[in-house]
């Protein structure tokens, strides 16, 4: 549901996923969901859960994420975790960095488990960065935390909880810049398909 509030006053879920690989259409699945809720410029709630994919992780994924097979023993499955996460999200706008990747895994989970369709607004901070800083060459998360003076530990990068919080802190600063560029609410962003990947 789109609320009649300014960009900085509104409520959002900023999330990040870690996965078994890069291709949801080829059998890869989610192994961690991390997210924060933000409202009026502050983080007020958190979500983090590891997920058992019922398969062994590759050495490459463990190296990237820091998640190993032992950490996933006894954890819940993807279907249960995705259901609970989306219940926690409710109808709030969802924000991610390179959101096309993350939402593709959630969409595939919905398809696999016959859960319907995700109808939330989806906002991509990568698209916002390219809009606000069009002259800059790099827009990855590690670059943006430096650009926006966000405290950052590179060794914790690629864990979903840490990345979602970093993205949220970047997003909050981006919202202030957007308002300075005469964007008053989410609907003002709708004409930019590279920012709003999915409308309500």
CATH fold-type name = Nucleotidyltransferase, domain 5
In percent, how much strand structure appears in the residues? 15-25%
**Helix segment tally:** 7
Strand order of the largest sheet: 3-2-1-4-5-6
Number of strands: 6
Tell me the CATH superfamily. Answer: Ribonuclease H-like superfamily/Ribonuclease H
Low confidence ranges: none
Radius of gyration: 16 Å
Global morphology: globular
Whole-number average pLDDT? 95
Report helical residue fraction: 25-40%
Outline the biggest β-sheet.
6 strands, mixed
Please identify, by name, the CATH architecture.
2-Layer Sandwich
In whole angstroms, the N-to-C terminal distance is 7 Å
How many domains, as an integer?
1
The CATH first-level class comes to Alpha Beta
Q: Tell me the series of helices and strands, N- to C-terminal.
A: EEEHHHEHEHHHE
Secondary-structure class: alpha/beta
Features of this protein?
Nucleotidyltransferase, domain 5; globular; alpha/beta; 200 residues
Describe this structure in a few short sentences:
The chain is of the alpha/beta class. The chain has helices spanning 59-65, 69-72, 78-89, 99-112, 125-132, 141-147, 160-180, and strands spanning 11-19, 30-39, 42-50, 94-96, 122-124, 196-198. It has a six-stranded mixed sheet, sandwiched between helices.
């Amino acid at each position: 549901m789109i609320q009649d509030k300014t960009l900085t006053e509104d409520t959002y879920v900023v999330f990040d996923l870690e996965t078994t690989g890069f291709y949801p259409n080829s059998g890869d699945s989610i192994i961690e969901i991390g997210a924060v809720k933000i409202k009026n410029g502050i983080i007020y709630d958190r979500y983090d859960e590891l997920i058992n994919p019922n398969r062994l992780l590759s050495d490459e994924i463990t190296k990237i994420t820091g998640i190993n097979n032992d950490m996933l023993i006894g954890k819940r499955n993807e279907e249960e975790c995705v259901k609970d996460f989306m219940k926690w999200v409710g109808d709030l706008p969802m924000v991610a960095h390179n959101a096309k990747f993350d939402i593709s895994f959630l969409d595939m989970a919905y398809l696999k488990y016959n859960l319907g369709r995700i109808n939330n607004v989806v906002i991509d901070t990568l698209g916002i960065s390219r809009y606000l800083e069009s002259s800059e060459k790099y827009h990855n998360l590690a670059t943006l935390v430096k650009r926006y003076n966000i405290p950052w530990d590179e060794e914790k990068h690629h864990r979903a909880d840490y990345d979602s919080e970093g993205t949220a802190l970047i997003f909050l600063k981006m919202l202030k810049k957007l308002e300075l560029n005469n964007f008053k609410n989410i609907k003002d962003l709708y004409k930019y398909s590279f920012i709003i990947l999915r409308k309500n």
